[in-house]
Amino acid sequence: MIKAAAFIFALLFVAQSVYSHYIFKVLLAGSKTSTAAVRQPQSVEPFHDITSSAATCNVNPSPASEVVTVAPGEKLGFKLSNNMYHQGPVSIYLGKAPGDVSKWDGSGKAWFKIAEWGIKSYHPVDFTSHNLNEFMTTVPENTPPGQYLARIEQIALHLGTGVPEIFVSCAQIKVTGKGTGNPAKVSIPGYIAANDPGVVANIYNGMTSYKVPGPAVWRG
Question: Which UniProt keywords are listed (predicted)?
């Protein structure tokens, strides 16, 4: 009887874990929404190594077929396929393509962060991203024109083991305007170390401070 109960509990735990996974599936840009502009991940399953090539735009995402135009100052964000049930920070980055964004793999020192959702409280730990299904910011006013990958990530910390679950999507956009900003740029992967305190944090062990991994947000 005890073994049967344990088995049922394990099945429920697995089902809940799978149900709680998600994809950043929809690009929100200005007044437009698009799934075609998103390089869609192959599944809702996360990856775990922030230093792997998957950190750029996930594991072998499908090609996108659209580039969405957005102006500086307009809204930019992503919508999830589910609510964000896992605790952990969320960040949005822009990476400027050297030419046609549809042919760019995101390599090189080209990325800068434009938004992040960090911690809200410590007792218990609760992130501002928790239970949301849309993450919206604006394109910084001084963003240079050109074609970009807009990239969103969550580093989910709910396992409490020092091994994160990482969810990432990229979408293809074209920024208009005459911006001349020059934000400091990072490479992805390479922007966060595997042992970064914000990646290996145990949210169940009396955490009293937390810094979202990666560079500072560029406000433009």
Answer: Carbohydrate metabolism, Cellulose degradation, Disulfide bond, Hydrolase, Polysaccharide degradation, Secreted, Signal
Task: Give this prediction's pTM.
Answer: 0.91
Distance CA 213, CA 220 (A): 20
> 3-state SS of the chain?
CHHHHHHHHHHHHHHHHHHCCCCEEEEEECCEEECCCEECCCCCCCECCCCCCHHHHCCCCCCCCCCEEECCCCEEEEEECCCCCCCCCEEEEEEECCCCHHHCCCCCCCEEEEEEECEEEECCEEECCCCCCEEEEECCCCCCCEEEEEEEEEEECCCCCCCCEEEEEEEEEEECCCCCCCCCCECCCCCCCCCCHHHHCCCCCCCCCCCCCCCCCCCC
Cross-strand bridge partners of residue 154: 90, 167
CB 148 within 8 A of CB 104: no
- Total count of residues recorded for the chain: 220
For residue range 100-150, list pLDDT tens digits in order: 999 999 999 999 999 999 999 999 999 999 999 999 999 999 999 999 999
How many whole angstroms separate alpha carbon 52 and alpha carbon 191? 11
Q: Each residue of 206-218: pLDDT tens digit?
A: 999 999 999 999 9
